[in-house]
Write a structure and sequence with these properties.
Helix content is about 40%, strand content about 20%. The protein has helices at about 1-20, 40-45, 50-55, 65-80, 125-150, 170-175, 180, and strands at about 25-30, 35-40, 85-90, 95-105, 120-125, 155, 165. Strand 3 and strand 4 form a beta hairpin.
Length: about 200
């Protein structure tokens, strides 16, 4: 019996070590959303100790309306629905928040019907979201400068020289509508001697 207990403890230690080496946060929650177990990445993500995170409600870490969305996703997963990954803003420590992508996996086999557990994987996508917002801002600034420029300008594909977009100044210069320019090549508007 002692050998079996030792073997089980060794297997549990090995599984914990493997989970702790994963780059994603992995948590095991019950049907009430209470965290039963967690790996090292989750502790680092939320800046909490194992003692502070285990036995707490995972939804309590969500910000604002994401509290409700996370609770609903957990409930749907326990009902057996396939839940698409969701993006949430979560509290991490006392002063910061992180944007995470959460996915939910209900194991097919359980020990007892009343002892079901859900595997929740969380991936920090804060940096990706910041980069996406910065890119959107840069695109908006470019589009505003492009459209309001007093100089005629066109965006042209490199492969075939077709106009993808043109500003109003170029359309007025060529006495055409902007929509007429899109899809044409600059050669069509250039004098043969100047091509």
């Amino acid at each position: 019996m002692r050998q079996r207990i030792a073997a089980v403890e060794a297997a549990e230690a090995e599984v914990r070590r493997l989970l702790d080496e994963l780059p994603e946060a992995v948590l095991l929650v019950n049907a009430d959303g209470v965290v039963l177990s967690t790996n090292a990445a989750a502790l680092a993500m939320f800046d909490l100790s194992r003692r502070e995170l285990v036995d707490t409600h995972l939804v309590d870490l969500a910000s604002g309306d994401d509290h409700v969305r996370l609770g609903a996703a957990i409930q749907r997963a326990f009902e057996g629905d396939d839940v698409d990954p969701i993006q949430l803003e979560m509290h991490a420590g006392s002063r910061r928040t992180v944007v995470i992508e959460g996915s939910f996996h209900l194991p097919r086999r359980t020990i007892a019907a009343d002892d079901r557990r859900l595997v929740v994987r969380l991936r920090d996508v804060s940096e990706r979201e910041q980069q996406s917002r910065a890119l959107d801002q840069a695109r908006r600034r470019f589009q505003q400068a492009f459209q309001s420029a007093p100089t005629g300008m066109a965006l042209v594909r490199v492969d075939d020289g077709r106009i993808v977009d043109a500003n109003q100044s170029l359309a007025e210069m060529l006495r055409r509508d902007v929509n007429e320019l899109v899809g044409c090549t600059l050669r069509e508007f250039t004098h043969p001697d100047d091509v």
